[in-house]
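[Discussion] Sanity-checking designs against the backbone

I'm trying to build intuition for which residues belong where. Below is a structure token string of 261 positions. I'd appreciate it if someone posts a full sequence so I can compare it with mine line by line.
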């Protein structure tokens, strides 16, 4: 399950008991607060809670979301409620409109594993996958990258890709005669060169034949959406939906509420 799918399932549960309070509603100047109101099992009364509270604040050209799950400032059009209203959550587009706040993406080991698997396994009948072209490649990837590599952070993941090699062989050709070998291990190649020097008196220096290496992976995006950014994206669209619903019903409660701790 990726971050977007996970958040789409989680968010409705986080705000299932939220209620809206309009603190200001003056054209493009708005301040709308959402607080959880849950029943206290000891008193049997509904009480306000600071869990997952958030505010939506707008002024011409900007929208700020602030609360228990992070803070972000967006800027795009005069009426930012109109920009975010309806449609689907679009983190890629919305991240481009962030002007301040926390990170929108973070390194994802799951994303890294997915990209590596796609790279070596993608293929069809006409164009075999790299795993088919290079016997033992999948096992080498599992050991060198996923087992021995320090892939819990992005630097380690990229280093594991850079340092990976599979199917490296050595070859040797005598410059003084027709003797030649190829497809040997490094140890076997140098052993052959030593024997050839003894038997024929000719010095041979084996050379390395490059095997499989990961190429053009420096541009891979190993990040997935940071959960707080996704939570706030959902909060914005859900909160605007609640605001629009109250506006349509004509019920617009206005009161002063203390900011949750």
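Best answer:
Here's mine. Compare freely.
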């Amino acid at each position: 399950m990726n971050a977007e799918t996970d958040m789409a399932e989680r968010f409705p549960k986080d705000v299932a008991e939220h209620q809206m309070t309009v603190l200001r509603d003056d054209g493009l100047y708005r301040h709308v607060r959402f607080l959880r109101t849950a029943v206290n099992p000891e008193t049997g009364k509904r009480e306000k809670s600071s869990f997952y509270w958030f505010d939506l604040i707008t002024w011409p050209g900007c929208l700020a979301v602030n609360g228990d799950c992070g803070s972000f400032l967006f800027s795009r059009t005069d009426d930012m409620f109109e920009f975010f209203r309806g449609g689907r959550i679009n983190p890629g587009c919305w991240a481009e409109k962030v002007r301040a706040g926390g990170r929108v993406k973070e390194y994802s080991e799951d994303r890294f594993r997915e990209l590596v698997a796609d790279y070596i396994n993608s293929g069809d009948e006409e164009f075999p996958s790299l795993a088919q072209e290079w016997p033992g490649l999948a096992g080498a990837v599992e050991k060198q990258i996923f087992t021995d590599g320090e892939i819990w952070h992005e630097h380690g993941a990229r280093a594991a890709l850079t340092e990976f090699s599979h199917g490296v062989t050595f070859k040797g050709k005598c410059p003084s005669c027709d003797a030649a070998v190829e497809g040997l291990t490094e140890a076997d190649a140098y052993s052959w060169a030593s024997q050839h020097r003894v038997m024929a008196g000719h010095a041979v220096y084996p050379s390395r034949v490059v095997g499989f290496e990961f190429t053009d992976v420096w541009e891979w995006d190993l990040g997935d959406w940071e959960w707080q950014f996704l939570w706030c994206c959902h909060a914005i669209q859900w909160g605007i939906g609640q605001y629009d619903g109250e506006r349509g019903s004509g019920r617009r409660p206005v009161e002063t509420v203390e900011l949750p701790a």
